Amino acid sequence: MQPLGGNKHHPDRGESLFVDGKQDSSVFGFANSRNAPRFVRKAARFLQVLTPTRFVTSKTVHMIALGAVVVVASGFLINSDSKNRLMASASSVTGLQASKLVVNGNENLDINVLQARLATQLGNSLFSFKVDEARKEILNDPWVEDAKVRKVYPDTIVVDVVERKPVALWQSKGEVHLIAKDGFVISKAGPKHMNLPQVVGEGANMVATEFLSAISRFPVITKKASAYVRVAGRRWNVRFGEGPQVLLPESDWQVALFELQDLQTQKRLLDRDILQIDMRLRDRLVLKLDPKDAEVRKTAIRKSLKRDWHKT
Fold first, then answer.
1. Smallest Cα–Cα separation from 116: which of 103, 105, 128, 97?
2. Which of 251, 261, 258, 254 is nearest to 281 (CA)?
3. Phi and psi at residue 287, in whole multiples of 5°?
4. In terms of C-beta density within 10 A (0-12 exposed, 13-18 middle, 19 or more buried), how is residue 257 classed?
5. How far is CA 9 from the centre of its chain?
6. Phi, psi for 36 (deg, rounded to 5)
7. Pairwise CA distance, residues 22 & 118, whole Å
8. pLDDT in tens, 13-50
9. How is residue 123 annotated by DSSP?
10. Which has the closest alpha carbon to 277: 295, 293, 259, 300?
11. Mind listing the domains of the chain with CATH numbers?
């Protein structure tokens, strides 16, 4: 069995897990580091004197010993810059630096962007890494709804994030963004989310969740709809691609949707050459035809009237 560090003993001489602690420990390296303040080096050397000359070379033991030096030494420091230098010295000797970043729970959040947000702290001492400040910085990312940050010694920062879930596309002022259920604008939309329902117009993002939840009960309509347009902050229009646009009333618009679904099921109204279906009036349905189709029908009616007139 190989020794855990430092001096290697020949099998014939009696293999041992124990090595010279004074020569192989992190405390020894810290005590002789030129980067460490003078009184810290003295404290480390004093700790060496109290340490048995031979002990198990465990990294945990080294860390505990070094931690004792750092805690004792930092207690005498009033100046924060001196404390930071002490922490940096400890990190350089033992490798206790925030050099690794592990992110859990991310689906859309770019890890490189998150790493850039933490750039001022990553690479520094794990002792001085400020978890609360890191969390605040992470929460500034629009994709992040909540986050937890923790240190995992000897060199890792673990970030557990809860992402915002995009529920719709919001088109406004010529741009399309992803929005969360509360209307929060997450980011510009990309190809990955083009299958989400689209709402259009000023303020549509703030009331989209309620409307989309209600209209989801009308699958005949939602299957064909291409966008939902918010008009003057009061009511909705429904677009059907190259098909008609349906004007819903300001009140009782869910009743209008029931009627529209029945008309589509029974009459295939949305599949006809109609430009607009106005449902804002309770007692009637107003259809707007394409001008060319309207003229053809108008001519056909006139001819029909003439024939009827001669027959009578």
1. 103
2. 251
3. -105, 135
4. buried
5. 54
6. -80, 145
7. 37
8. 443 333 344 444 444 555 555 555 665 565 566 555 55
9. T
10. 259
11. 11-94 (no CATH), 100-163 (3.10.20.310), 168-294 (3.40.50.11690)
Helix (H, G, I), strand (E, B) or coil at 19: strand
Which amino acid appears at position 278 of this protein?
Answer: D
Q: For 104, list phi and psi in degrees, rounded to 5.
A: -115, 145
**Chain centroid, CA 73 distance in Å:** 41
- pTM of the prediction? 0.66
User: What are the two backbone dihedrals, phi and then psi, of residue 229, each rounded to the nearest 5 degrees?
Assistant: -105, 125
Beta carbons of 196 and 167 less than 8 angstroms apart:
yes
Nearest to 47 by CA among 27, 30, 61, 64: 27
Spatial CB neighbours of 268, under 8 Å, sequence gap ≥ 6: none
Taking only the tens place, the pLDDT of each residue in 233-281 is 999 999 999 889 999 999 999 999 999 999 999 999 999 888 999 999 9
Distance of CA 198 to the CA centre of its chain: 20
Q: Which amino acid is at 304?
A: S
Give which of 182, 183, 139 is closest to 163, Cα–Cα: 139
For the stretch 127-156, pLDDT in tens is 889 999 999 999 999 999 999 999 999 899
Question: What DSSP assignment string belongs to 153-187?
Answer: TTTEEEEEEEEPPP-EEEEETTEEEEE-TT--EEE
